[in-house]
Amino acid sequence: MRITLVLVCGVLASGCLATRDRGASDWTSRAQTYKAPTENRCAKLAGAPANNCNEAQYLAQIYVRKLSSGDEVCLEGGFGDAPTGACLGRAAVVDTATNRILLEIRNARPESKWFSHEQHQFWFEEGALVDLYLLEHGY
Question: What is the residue extent of each domain of the chain?
Fold first, then answer.
């Protein structure tokens, strides 16, 4: 009876140790999360610029929500556009969750802020990617 109890406890404990968060580079760490900003960029604008920003925000939300595993994105130098030669930091969608997208930095130029993070994974809240889209489109 005691041996069975010890075995059951051992199996349960080993299952708990093997569990890790998606996006972790190993079982002891978790991927960093980029949270959405608390303030909306478009709310600071007025008139035609605000209307243009709201339209860009709508397009960004559609773009971000359609991202799925395997998609490649330009994380710096053209987010929202297909990665081209002008892209400073390329990433791939590794996983998605409610309101979050896990990106893995695949290629970054030396002048990119992502250069030292190649092969690292980061969770981005949808709002953070929408804000990045607006920033890269001049809002």
Answer: 22-136
Torsion angle in degrees (nearest 10) through CA of 54, 55, 60, 63:
150
DSSP, collapsed to helix, strand or coil, labels residue 98 as coil
DSSP string for 16-28: HHH---TT-SSTT
In angstroms, the CA 95 to CA 101 distance is 6
From first to last of its 139 residues, the chain has per-residue pLDDT tens of 555 444 444 444 444 443 345 554 444 457 899 999 999 999 989 999 999 999 999 999 999 999 999 999 999 999 998 888 899 999 999 999 999 999 999 999 999 999 999 999 999 999 999 999 999 999 9
DSSP, res 114? T
What is the torsional sign of CA 42, 139, 109, 112? negative
Using DSSP's 3-state secondary structure scheme, residue 99 falls into coil
- Can you tell me which residue has the tokens 């051992």? 10
CA triple 24-94-68, angle to 5 deg: 145
d(Cα 116, Cα 131) in Å, to the nearest integer?
23
